[in-house]
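Subject: Predicted fold for Riboflavin biosynthesis protein, 311 residues

User T.R. writes:
Posting the sequence so we have a shared reference for the thread.
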Amino acid sequence: MQVFFGDPGRFRLDGCALTIGNFDGVHLGHRSMLERLRAEADARALPTAVLTFEPHPREFFSRTEPPARLSTLRDKLAALRASGLIDRVFVFRFNHAFSRMSAADFIDDILVRELKVRYLLIGDDFQFGARRGGDFALLSACPQFVTEAMPSVLARGERASSTRVRECLAAGDLDGAAHLLGHPYTLSGRVMHGQKLGRTLGFPTANIHLPHRRPALEGVFVVEVDTPLGRFGGVASFGRNPTVSDTPDYKLEAHLFGFSGDLYGRRLTVRFLKKLRDEARYDDLTALVAQIERDAASARTYLNSLQREKA
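User M.O. replies:
I've generated the structure tokens; pasting them so everyone works from the same file.
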């Protein structure tokens, strides 16, 4: 899979079968769209392509209250690559100039001239251009490519959408989110140096850096973590750590059962399996440690039950 940043016209690419969207989380609805795009592209002997945006347009327009992000750009690209369905991804920077582009200019300059689209597959509610002035009817009138709309995909009787995944995660319904995603909710990031308080409390943690200003979930969780040294079960806190910190920044800290070693600078993938509780503020470190011990015991019990089910 090739990834292109900036003006794709300079790469002198040939035609493509394209779909457009944020693809935040790459859920089952996205997967169905990519499968249909692959089938239509193969029938036309065209490469498949995705046009996506960074930052998310809703982040750009809501800078003081950005929406929760399900995935980083890196994780999104990794999921698209892992699907095996996409040949090219075009990442367009969503900025003031792009937000003011008219729907007609988007079609003429981006889709026709730069991307040379021959087939376009869009969601049934897709709108684009300044003031969301473009829609399926406008795209269908363009003679340079065929436009088709993808109907909603249902999972467990409900529409598979990034919005619905966010709602499940915010409510602590990790099973519901997993059914919409097709797998447990996952994030990845590099281990950074933190306060190193956990090791003094007997629970050393990996402090995982994420660029999200607002995560899709908060609380204490049972997790599985993929590291360069293997997969480890553990317990993770994702929030603001109100007992020991007054920063508004969110932190993801994971304690890995049975692990000893140095993970600084290494990339970890965290798979969220079950929510144990919301974050809470404790009067002192003794109370905090007692709660961490209870969380760790609950996480071990849950992970052991999973192992018995797999056996």
